[in-house]
Amino acid sequence: MLKRKMxxxxxxxxxxxxGHEALLIExxxxxxxxxIVEAFGRTQYxxxxxxxxxxxxxxxxxxxxxxxxxxxxxxxxxSTYYRTRLYERDSLIVFDEVQQYPAARELIKYLVAxxxxxxxxxxxxxxxxxxxxxxxxxxxxxxxxxxPLDFEEFxxxxxxxxxxxxxxxxxxxLDPLPDALHKRAMRLWREYLLxxxxxxxxxxxxxxxxxxxxxxxxxxxxxxxxxxxxxxxxGDAGRVRGIFAQIPGQLxxxxxxxxxxxxxxxARSREYDGAFFWLEDARxxxxxxxxxxxxxxxxxxxxxxxxxxxxxxxxxxxSETFADRQTTPDDxxxxxxxxxxxxxxxxxxxxxxxxQFRANGRKLYFFSRTNRNDASQTMEIDFLIxxxxxxxxxxxxxxxxxxxxxxxxxxxxxxxxxxIYGSKLGKEYVLHPRQLESDGERIKLPLYMAHCL
Length: 453
Description:
This is ATPase. Helices cover about 45% and strands about 20% of the residues. It has a 5-stranded parallel sheet with strand order 2-3-4-1-5, sandwiched between helices. Strands 10-11-12-14-13 form a 5-stranded mixed sheet. It folds into 2 domains: about 5-145, Rossmann fold; about 150-450, no CATH class. The chain is built from 16 helices and 14 strands. It has helices at about 5-15, 35-45, 60-65, 70-80, 100-115, 150-155, 160-175, 180-195, 200-210, 210-230, 235-250, 270-280, 315-320, 330-335, 345-360, 410-420, and strands spanning about 20-25, 45-50, 90-95, 120-125, 140-145, 285-290, 300-310, 365-370, 380, 385-390, 395-405, 430, 435-440, 440-445. It has about 450 residues and is an alpha/beta fold. It starts with 5 loop residues before the first helix and ends in a 7-residue tail after the last strand.
């Protein structure tokens, strides 16, 4: 099984909650939710039961329907059906794909109050309104997101644990890696751009190093997502599909803000609000919103009419980019890997950085301003993040982040941004393919350190 950071979060939740709350793990399909909770139950408890509501046996449904008011009998029947003895305060019950049977989620309130066992729920598309319309959401439920593997987890999967550890130490000390290790890390980063972080795709690549096989897996996942759109998006399905298909084209532009006119000349934002909400809520995309004032509390200054739309996984973005053909052969991927085939690498790199920030629990913001009469006021910063600032007693400050896919680039927007908003800013970062460089308030990091921010 792939090593995931989610395991540490689950162990920490078990320690802190001590049976006083259930945990709901939300995420897109195929990101590894079921796998990680099964491993958690197997390694951290004396016993566990996993109830898969996507394939709920009739007899188990009857137990939920008929015994919910008698929890002692309820547990006895579950234990008997799954041939698993339950131990008070040392057993876990997993409600897998709980959105398929909302009544089980409503029961969590009483199960937690009973206190005999621990409960983890997993769900895909779980917060879409149709899945919770007729139930009371339990207040005893803590939510946590799970996404695809970030770059550090990809390194672990590739057997590069020591390199991953060295990258973190290099970042913390602002001390560049030796050239040989830098080249190795950049090679891994380029592989990550193509493979992405979907567990099934990563596992296949680790096993066989076959990009063609990986592409088949990613296309299967994209087909699954397409089926989900048709099944769950209802009246917005056409708009959702239109947005999803346009993401590669939108990100390939110099200015990556999403323009609805690319879908239809008559498209209006109010008509597409629900479709974008659906995609973000289903964890299929990462929306990056324009914050018009670079102050701590970026969400207070959102301009909802200006946003960028990234795919949740960069590997899926690559396969979606080549959607005009049925398959993408292994040698095409290898030509991209070794820079022998032209591809807009900028869109992949920026999408991958967004993926790292979301994996760290960050909401995504950028800064954009256009002034046709004064070029000194026109600028665009790829990302704004909040970080503690060492020159302000570790108080939080805004850090602008620029992402560069080539070794030669300019920083005019970053320079303007510092001149105008310097008093609000902490460190500023440039993520680029080159070695780490630290120059006062500006730190240039290799792209493979994005997950450290």
